[in-house]
């Protein structure tokens, strides 16, 4: 009876189911870690697709198996996509945590091109595709854009392009570059006042325009206008992290996903 009332509360209040899921890499290598990848999974209602975030920074969140939430505002913004009170609610959200920091204290995150990192991305995609039966849309933010670039090259080289349901290219580093024909929907998103020297909006716009010129797949560019700065590292806070712009970001994501995943 208690579980019945809990389910009713969830149904009428738009609260999504949440859990931390441990995913073992599908393959191993000599220099790879044997540790599983922990993922936060928020389940939407009648979901049409899964949005999977590859975080920026060092890629390490420090998820614990018993967690049911992530308080950082960026994650709470994505969580809105699972809640029919705050959005359409028709999308699941996955946050991929790295078991260790990726290229800590290095100017370029080269480990995001390592086999260990790429096989963890593939393993997580395959797990959630099988679990949900839905397309998985990869979202890379900041340094996570390097992960998108490297995974695209990896998927092409190994004939695994069918794994990718779409890309959300969010405030990515200027080195994040996407070449060749893209067969899936892409959303580029950047704050107009992003103050991080490594993530110029001009580079994202240039990349977007070049791809749009010869790609047939749906492509959009969303410029974020709201939010505010913070007295912190501009590559880890404020406009770059969409601080105070959560509602606008969630609306762009919801519209893009709703338009392309019926």
Write up this protein.
With 262 residues, this protein is of the alpha/beta class. It has one domain: Rossmann fold (3-Layer(aba) Sandwich). 31% of the residues lie in helices and 19% in strands. The chain is built from 6 helices and 8 strands; from the N terminus they run H-E-E-E-H-E-H-E-H-E-E-H-E-H. The chain has helices at 2-13, 73-79, 115-132, 144-157, 201-214, 246-260, and strands at 17-23, 37-43, 49-54, 91-96, 136-141, 166-170, 186-191, 219-224. It has an 8-stranded mixed beta sheet with strand order 1-2-4-3-5-6-7-8, with helices on both faces. Helix 2 (73-79) runs parallel beside helix 6 and helix 3 (115-132) crosses helix 4 (144-157). The model is unreliable at 1-14 (pLDDT under 50).
What is the annotated CATH architecture?
Answer: 3-Layer(aba) Sandwich
The total count of strands amounts to 8
Name of the CATH class:
Alpha Beta
Number of self-contained structural domains: 1
Indicate the overall shape: globular
Mean pLDDT across every amino acid position: 93
List its salient traits.
262 residues, alpha/beta, Rossmann fold, eight-stranded mixed β-sheet, 6 helices, 8 strands
Question: What's the layout of helices and strands?
Answer:
Elements: H1 2-13, E1 17-23, E2 37-43, E3 49-54, H2 73-79, E4 91-96, H3 115-132, E5 136-141, H4 144-157, E6 166-170, E7 186-191, H5 201-214, E8 219-224, H6 246-260
Parallel strand pairs: 3-4, 3-5, 5-6, 6-7, 7-8
Antiparallel strand pairs: 1-2, 2-4
Helix pairs in contact: 2-6, 3-4
């Amino acid at each position: 009876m208690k579980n019945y009332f809990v389910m009713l509360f969830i149904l009428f209040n738009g609260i999504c189911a949440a859990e931390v899921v441990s995913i073992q890499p599908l393959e191993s290598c000599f220099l790879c870690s044997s540790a599983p990848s922990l993922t936060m999974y928020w389940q939407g209602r009648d979901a049409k697709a899964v949005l999977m975030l590859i975080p920026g920074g060092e890629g390490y969140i420090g998820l614990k198996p018993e967690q049911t939430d992530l308080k950082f505002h960026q994650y709470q913004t994505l969580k809105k996509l699972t809640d029919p009170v705050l959005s359409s609610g028709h999308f699941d959200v996955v946050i991929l945590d790295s078991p260790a920091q990726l290229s800590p204290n290095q100017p370029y995150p080269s480990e995001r091109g390592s086999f260990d990192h790429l096989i963890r991305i593939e393993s997580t995609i395959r797990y959630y595709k099988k679990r949900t039966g839905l397309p998985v849309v990869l979202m890379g933010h900041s340094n996570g854009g390097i992960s998108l670039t490297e995974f695209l090259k990896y998927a092409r080289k190994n004939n695994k392009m069918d794994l990718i349901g779409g890309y959300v290219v969010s405030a990515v580093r200027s080195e994040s570059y996407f070449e060749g024909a893209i067969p899936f929907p892409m959303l580029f998103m950047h704050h107009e006042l992003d103050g991080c020297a490594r993530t110029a909006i001009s580079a994202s716009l240039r990349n977007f325009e070049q791809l749009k010129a010869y790609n047939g797949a749906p492509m959009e560019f969303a410029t974020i206008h709201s939010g505010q700065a913070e007295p912190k590292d501009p590559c880890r806070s404020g406009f770059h992290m969409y601080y105070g712009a959560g509602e606008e970001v969630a609306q762009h994501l919801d519209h893009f996903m709703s338009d392309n995943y019926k």
